[in-house]
């Protein structure tokens, strides 16, 4: 893949990720706003329910029912007594301070009972207004029969007055603490946890407030729309700290959104990683082809020159000259054979076809021979070997271990610094073999890929150091087949460390 196409792909994936993040963020914001409006609606509904419950409790406590103690009481006398009671609950009366201010003992022939429910609010209020105007017993009896209300105690068909009507007419204050308690019950039922303040304003503009400090710092408000509130009055609910409740409600959507966006991003990044990997493999393939071309080209050219010399420049059949040409050709053919075998050997490393011929071998002897050989080939380098004891025996394949160690030492001579040290130590029933050189040019990316097949540290378009990039891959596989491990670290110097079991 060309670099330009790869950059376009990176930009495209980046844009997709940003757009996906933006969409999910917008969706969560809209979900939050929708849930906020829904919560406010629930708060208003809870407030209305609390108001209804408040007046229902008052109705159960303060509803009055009245009837005569004497069934034979004349109509005119009973009418006078009822008219007296009506006057006592007259809205304009200064004596009336509420239902509890009525003393039944002051009204002869009339009993006042508590806890009576009312079946019709509107009809009874209209009937009460009609009765208050005419003040006749006939009107009251007509109303009672029309509403079909029966006294559960006396079985007399006298009508009842609901406190919802009376309270709405006579009361211009609320017990806000009681209302607050009822509202708490409603909010708890709906699983709403907020800090709140109640404010009641009557028809004269007088205010009652619960939790004034919450109202002062609150920026949000709703109000009751209940028809049971006194005329021209209002009940307001101020609240704060709703974010915790909102997040509790939308946390499921946020988690799901996070999981989905994370999955999309991970998939895109994984795709990008795969594409980048394929790009690197393509580059490695091109480098391998180029390296093989250069590696094979030299011995082939040398053999061609030798054969041409035998054919054109050895007319006298000089045995010495012919022998030199043949020896040169043979050496180059051996080199080609070794390179082909390395390539074929590498192909068998990942399978079970490579069998190890294990026997007891002395690691000291293998390492010493390798150090001496490379010191002879590179006299300008300083190569040293140290060991904690003279002989260190291990069960292994001498041929493959020798090749593996040789690859590490060969790389240190080719790519490392001038000082190279090989050390052998034993600890925890294992051997530690270190190959250290004074070079420190490997970066983190190269360290991660250095043991991969056909990978070579980039050196530009140069071929002063030959190779296929399979030496370290081969070494890693051989060490692993012996039950060991290999790693590389770079600080002030580069160190390849091998761990081998000594059992």
Could you explain how this protein is built, in words?
- The protein has 503 residues and is of the alpha+beta class.
- The chain has four domains: 64-161, no CATH class; 176-243, no CATH class; 285-349, Orthogonal Bundle (Helix Hairpins), CATH 1.10.287; 359-501, Histidine kinase-like ATPase, C-terminal domain (Heat Shock Protein 90, 2-Layer Sandwich).
- It is built from 13 helices and 13 strands.
- The protein has helices spanning 3-62, 75-88, 121-134, 137-147, 163-170, 176-189, 212-217, 243-312, 319-349, 363-377, 398-415, 444-449, 471-481; strands at residues 64-65, 160-161, 195-201, 207-210, 220-223, 234-240, 359-362, 382-387, 393-396, 419-427, 430-437, 485-490, 494-501.
- The strands form four sheets. It has a five-stranded mixed beta sheet, covered by helices on one side. A four-stranded antiparallel beta sheet has the order 4-3-6-5.
- A hairpin with a 5-residue loop joins β3 (195-201) and β4.
- Mean pLDDT is 75; it is low at 65-73, 107-126, 131-137, 139-170 and 461-465.
């Amino acid at each position: 893949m060309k670099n330009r196409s790869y950059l376009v792909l990176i930009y495209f994936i980046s844009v997709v990720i940003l757009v996906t993040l933006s969409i999910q963020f917008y969706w969560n914001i809209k979900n939050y706003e929708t849930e906020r409006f829904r919560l406010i609606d629930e708060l208003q509904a809870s407030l209305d329910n609390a108001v209804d419950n408040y007046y229902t409790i008052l109705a159960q406590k303060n509803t009055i029912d009245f009837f005569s103690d004497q069934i034979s009481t004349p109509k005119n006398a009973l009418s006078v007594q009822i008219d007296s009671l009506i006057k006592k609950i007259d809205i304009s009366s200064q004596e009336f301070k509420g239902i509890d201010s009525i003393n039944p003992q002051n009204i002869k022939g009339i009993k006042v009972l508590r806890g009576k429910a009312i079946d019709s609010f509107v009809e009874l209020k209209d009937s009460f207004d009609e009765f208050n105007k005419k003040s006749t017993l006939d009107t009251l009896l007509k109303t009672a029969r029309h509403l079909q209300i029966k006294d559960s105690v006396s079985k007399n068909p006298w009508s009842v007055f609901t406190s919802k009507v009376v309270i709405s007419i006579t009361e211009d204050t609320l017990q806000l603490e009681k209302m607050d308690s009822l509202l708490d019950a409603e909010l708890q039922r709906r699983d709403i946890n907020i800090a709140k303040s109640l404010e009641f304003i009557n028809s004269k503009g007088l205010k009652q407030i619960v939790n004034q400090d919450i109202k002062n710092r609150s920026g949000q408000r709703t109000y009751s729309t209940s028809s049971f509130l006194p005329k021209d009055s209002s009940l307001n609910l101020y609240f704060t700290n709703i974010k915790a409740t909102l997040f509790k409600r939308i946390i499921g959507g946020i988690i799901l959104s996070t999981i989905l966006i994370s999955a999309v991003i991970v998939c895109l990044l994984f795709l990008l990683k795969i594409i980048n990997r394929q790009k690197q493999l393509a580059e490695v393939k091109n480098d391998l082809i180029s390296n093989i071309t250069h590696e094979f080209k030299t011995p082939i050219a040398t053999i061609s020159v030798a054969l041409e010399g035998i054919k054109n420049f050895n007319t006298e059949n000089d045995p010495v000259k012919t022998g030199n040409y043949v020896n040169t050709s043979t050496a180059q053919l051996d080199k080609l054979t070794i390179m082909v075998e390395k390539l074929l050997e590498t192909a068998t490393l990942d399978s079970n076809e490579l069998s190890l011929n294990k026997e007891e071998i002395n690691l000291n002897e293998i390492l010493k021979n390798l150090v001496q050989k490379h010191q002879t080939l590179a006299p300008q380098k300083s190569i040293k070997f140290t060991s904690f004891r003279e002989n260190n025996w291990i069960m292994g394949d001498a041929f493959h271990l020798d090749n593996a160690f040789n690859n590490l030492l060969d790389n240190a001579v080719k790519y490392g610094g001038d000082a190279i040290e090989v050390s052998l130590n034993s600890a925890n029933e294992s051997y530690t073999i270190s190959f250290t050189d004074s070079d420190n040019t490997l970066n983190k990316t190269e360290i991660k890929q250095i043991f991969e097949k056909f990978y070579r540290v980039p050196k530009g378009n140069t071929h002063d150091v030959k190779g296929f990039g399979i030496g370290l891959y081969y070494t890693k596989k051989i060490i692993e087949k012996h039950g060991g491990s290999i790693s590389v670290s770079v600080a002030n110097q580069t160190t390849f460390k091998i761990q081998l079991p000594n059992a």
